[in-house]
Amino acid sequence: MEKGVGSFLDCVKKEFQLEDKEAKQYSPLTLAYIGDGVYDLVIRTILVETANQPVKNLHRKASSIVKAGAQARLAHEILDRLTEEEMSIYKRGRNAKSATSAKNASITDYRTATGLEALMGYLYMENKMERAVALIREGLARVEQVSYAAQNK
Fold it and tell me: Which pLDDT does position 51 carry in this prediction?
């Protein structure tokens, strides 16, 4: 990052004169709400940077990665890498009672995905995007290895 340039979050807070709050002050579902967007943006960035394709193809690939079932698989692959604090945030998100339900996923996958999204929201609100991206990278790599191993049995 260039010297003197803040994070995306810092920029938004400055331009809209938003006060700083501790991420733990937010409800788990509020963290999941912002975390859903954070996770989606990371995935879209990866896809755009690695493949200049028609938007229809990019959307189809992104949708397959950000849906609840795929997020749940990724979450399971990174749980052993979480700190105690991160695990606490993940569990708060996973266990939160949501008024909405999954359209195309089991309730277990939906809740696991909500836990992952809460964790991503927490890391974003704490300005720990390097950690969030590292966890996503590791999770994607592990999910890919599992998929490859299953295909080659």
Answer: 81
